[in-house]
Amino acid sequence: MHDFFLLRRQRHQKKMMKYMRYVLNDHFVLVCLFLVGGLAFYYSNLLKQLPPDFPWSLPIVGVIWWFALPFGKLATLVEPADMAFLLPKEKEMGDYLSRGLRHSLAFPFVVELLICGALLPLVVLAKQISFTNFFFYLIMLWGLKFSHLRLQRLACYQKTQEQTQRLLVLWFIVSGAILFVSLYSTAWIGTVLSLAATFAFISLTQERKRLLDWSKMIDRENARLHRIYQFINLFTDVPEVEAKVRRRKYLDGLLAKISFKQENTYLYLFARGALRGAEFGGLFFRLLIVGGVLLFSLNDFRFVTGVSLLFVYLIGFQMIPLYNQFDYISSTQLYPVPTKYKRAALQRLMVILLFAASIIFTLCSLVHLSIVESLLLLVLLLIEIGLFAWFYLPARIKKMEV
């Protein structure tokens, strides 16, 4: 079963790497670098402004660590056909699940490493301790997460539902207690308590020759993979996730403003695709919401301008594939609509969407900026929209038509 799991893991990683090429594209990496840099800048300034006796430092750190612990699920990599073909090997599945547990540790351990490192300055500020305590806190978090994955492993077996639920509640309470004890006493005490709790949960989660609950294990793995595919689907098409068209009747008033003329054929189709399609409509609203939330938290004109310009560009760039969205429909090929109308339709729709996003971003900036600064921001966004719609977009469409 060792070689079998390695084969499964290799195939899974190869598939994920294929999708990562689309997820970690230049634009997404640029956004991440920009956001991380901005958040780090404001976080460092916040730490400088906080007094040493700030009473909420430790509670904030404890709550974030506590609720970050359940992050990360057990990856079993089982498939529906395993219920039949691996049943004769059920006695050897214990080793398979153990390897799956070890495989599942990597991602949550990295997340906890980053969270622990990011929040440690708050602990140092509140307790006036050295940064060497970081290793004690990190081992504590890793031990508690290992216990959580052991409970998920136990849930793969039959007649363990009630036991698993009780142990999960106990684990959550014990984890919170250990975290706050370590924060309000010394770090090494939390490490010792965490290791003791880990060994206790290992003894409580022994399988004792139980039979596997194949249906439940397969359903949980499918649900875990579906969440991953939903995230990847934000960047590219994923066959495992079926896109859904939503009615959104409340937006019919906007579509009614498009007159039924030959030159508006593609404008109506593009508007329908942007408003009803899960791919483009969801992408537009998600970028709009993320950009608006970021602008609410920024108070520097330079950062507000940079974030606004970046998100307007990202919205426009992600909507460009609308141009070929309806080419597979035979009626669009048979109906006599000149190509120039198709280009003009996408250009017009892009201006409308980007202008709406610019207005919303400008209103969000009024929270921290003056009216003059917000108006200047709007002017800069309008210039960007003009450059995008009349220079960049035609060049991209020309490449798509080649």
From TrEMBL:
This is ABC transporter permease. InterPro entries: EcsB_ABC. It comes from the Bacteria. Keywords: Membrane, Transmembrane, Transmembrane helix. The keyword Glycosyltransferase does not apply. The keyword Manganese does not apply. The lineage of its organism: Bacteria, Bacillati, Bacillota, Bacilli, Lactobacillales. The chain crosses the membrane at residues 21-43, 63-85, 105-123, 129-146, 167-183, 189-206, 280-297, 303-323, 349-369, 375-393. It comes from Candidatus Enterococcus murrayae.
